[in-house]
Amino acid sequence: MSIKDKAASGSERLQGRIRIPTPLRYLINSCLIAGLWFALSGMAAGGIINNYWKGILITVGINIILATSLNISVGYLGQLPLGHAGFMAVGAYASAIYMKSTPAAALIKAGDRGAVLPYLITAVLISAAVAGLFGLLIGIPALRLKGDYLAIITLGFGEIIRVTITNIDSVLGFKFTYGAAGLARIPKFTTLGNCFALVVISLTLIHMLMKSRFGRAILAVRDNEIAAESVGVDTTYYKTLAFVFSAMLAGVAGCLYAGYLGSLYPSTFKFMKSIEILVMVVLGGMGSMLGSVVSATVLTVLPEMLRAFSDYRMVAYSLLLVVMMIFRPTGLMGSYDFSMSRLLEKLLNAVFRRGAAADGEAYTEEGGR
Amino acid sequence: MADRQHGKLYPLPSQNMVLERDLGKMPVLECRRLGINFGGLAAVSEFDLGIGPTEITGLIGPNGAGKTTVFNLLTKVYEPTTGSILLNGKDTAKMSTIELNKAGIARTFQNIRLFKNMSVEDNVKVAMDHSIHCGLGTALFRLPRYWKEESDAHERAMDLLGIFGLQGMANAKAGSLPYGAQRRLEIVRALATNPSLLLLDEPAAGMNPAETSELMEVISHIRDEFQIAILLIEHDMNLVMGICDGIAVLNFGRIIAKGTPEDIQNNPAVIEAYLGRKKEAKS
Ligand SMILES: Nc1ncnc2c1ncn2[C@@H]1O[C@H](COP(=O)(O)OP(=O)(O)O)[C@@H](O)[C@H]1O
Ligand SMILES: [Mg+2]
Prior knowledge:
The complex is a heterodimer. By secondary structure, chain A is mainly α. Chain A has helices at residues 3-16, 22-45, 51-76, 84-100, 104-109, 113-142, 147-172, 192-210, 213-223, 225-230, 235-261, 271-284, 289-305, 313-327, 340-352, 364-367.
């Protein structure tokens, strides 16, 4: 076969398959999200989800943002930062301090949720910006290192953030974070609704990032840094970008956390918190957004249901990790990501038997030469 | 292909040779006394080479001669100990690997370095990063410019994959491709960066004779269509005879002969250092 013939046969095969056009994909996904929201809010209104479960669901949402954002650094960028809780802390304290300075508390008490919205949006933006700034400051030196070194230096930075929050008031005489005594009386601005919305926004942003030239470059850096540089990919830039993006979303999760609990203690953001988030990512499958979502959900709900054993949670986590590494080292989902429209495409193709070659199988014919 | 006319090589003032049709044009690459030491071992030394803008040059020599090291010097994977490299007349001393790629050098790797977990199409699109300019906001919020650039990139990637008939595999994971297809994909990926000089490190390794001759045909097709220079490493001398305009022979890090394929075939030093050894190894 000549070059031209081969080119023609290749594109014919592609055209034979049914593809769902992108606008329709977005529509399908939007409908799914809306459906999920109507189900959740319906259950909440009908009393099927009581306040206790609402709280658990909010925690699930926060953990989903934490896990999927860490997954950017761990799964997509292929680094192992251990200071994620530090970024969450920065976001939590920044938004808490801001919210305390607004009339949000009075508005919430008066039941005027609509009037809180502008403050909420500002708080989210502030927490993302401040956490992102810290991500940049830490990322620039840390990302020069690799592997264990990067893990250790980010762990160190995470602890520095926590220790600073604990001591900054007593050293500088501020009334800022209230140190170990805790920052209390934060307006409780987090609801199931705004938590759900922020989870959807975060997941969408991650998806949009990863399916663009930025995401491609980030994955290329993970797969082969030397090759990435050889094709002109500015590896330092994309590493920093991924790291900052990850930190910003952790900040948003911190913001929701502050508004949910109403009080903050530096001890919450210890090193073990970072490990907890990492466990969610590793169990779910590094590089799989769905994996992070599922394991964040399971690892939040399960301990709640087994309250009696909560003291053994970290032991259980460790055991779970060990078992996972033995039987399924790529995590629950591997790097697989679920896509409703891809599933539909497969179904359609199977039903109409057109272009029998599915993704990933197409090469066998030609490759066998 | 056998009756292809080889151009005559002319010497330049810099002692480098240049093709007749490239005479008077600026060479795409000029290496002057390039050298590197690894802890006392001179892996490459006194390396002088000029490549005309549309020339296919073969770099041959036995295993361990320093061919791959030359590529690593040209792309700044290693910092040269001595000498200088001019790319399109510009000194590259202060350039990084990334900047050199933007300035026009693209390469493939002897030990394949694809983005294994990404699709074939995405492997090519990554290499077009310099020609896709949309900002982060445009991408995150899917503004019209994003769609335009993505569809352009898709089309261009498909065109490039078409050179080797790889479009049918566009959605397959690069790591799942057969060995030969992976090598071809590396060439496509390098081409996607719009190079003026393409470095191919043993592109035919692991291919059977039929695949190899087909590959060689495509390589000269690439030169004709894109009007670029190609520097080709291949330790099997007979393979490169057919398509190379000029050949440099490397042994123990030094160039022992330079010239047209005919010159090289009849050069006693080459026969002794290279073919002689090869015959010994076979017997
Ligand atoms: N990074 C390195 N450190 C030390 N020695 C090296 C390095 N890279 C290459 N060499 C040595 O340089 C010589 C040339 O290697 P290479 O360029 O790979 O040969 P080839 O001509 O087969 O491509 C070999 O002796 C090799 O061991
Ligand atoms: Mg080599």
